[in-house]
Specification:
Length: 165
């Protein structure tokens, strides 16, 4: 398992446990135990801490975004696993360096977590909610315009490059 994926997995499991306890358990203790149990050889533990502390610091904002992006699903009716995967995914979309974690990578990683830890339809649900959030981010239209839409357009771009050589 890749290091960043493992870090996200540990962060999600820690947030899940904390959320499951109604935020009564000590999150630092949970994260330390999960790092020891699931990531003993993990080189970059700071990413786990960055994700966990980032989600906690922005919890209200993240939950409000989930409410807006999935209005038919009250936050307390979303499964604890899905809710925390969404929080992580939205946190990465909003606050991570876009060059280090491109939005599509953040979304894909969240979908993979949902497939591993969530229910049968979790992947689709996570994809739908994060896709809605992504489309409403500043700069979404610019990202969309930068990329050719199909193989024909890709071919045209390659031909342009060859002509300019």
């Amino acid at each position: 398992m890749a290091s960043r994926h493992l870090s996200r997995s540990i962060a999600m499991q820690s947030l899940y446990e904390w959320d499951f306890s109604d935020k009564e358990l000590d999150l630092n203790t949970i994260v330390e135990r999960n790092l020891e149990e699931f990531g003993p050889g993990l080189e970059d533990k700071t990413f786990v801490w960055e994700l966990v502390t980032g989600v906690v610091e922005h919890l209200k904002e993240l939950d409000n975004i989930i409410k807006t992006a999935a209005p038919q699903w009250p936050i307390n009716q979303i499964s604890i696993v899905d809710r925390n995967i969404l929080r992580l995914g939205i946190y990465e979309l909003l606050y991570e360096d876009k060059k280090a974690v491109p939005p599509k990578v953040a979304i894909n990683e969240a979908i993979e977590l949902a497939k591993s830890f969530g229910g049968e339809n979790s992947g689709k649900f996570i994809n739908g909610v994060l896709g809605t959030v992504y489309k409403n981010l500043p700069g979404y239209e610019e990202d969309k315009e930068k990329k050719p839409k199909n193989k024909k357009e890709n071919k045209k771009e390659v031909e342009k490059i060859k002509k300019n050589k």
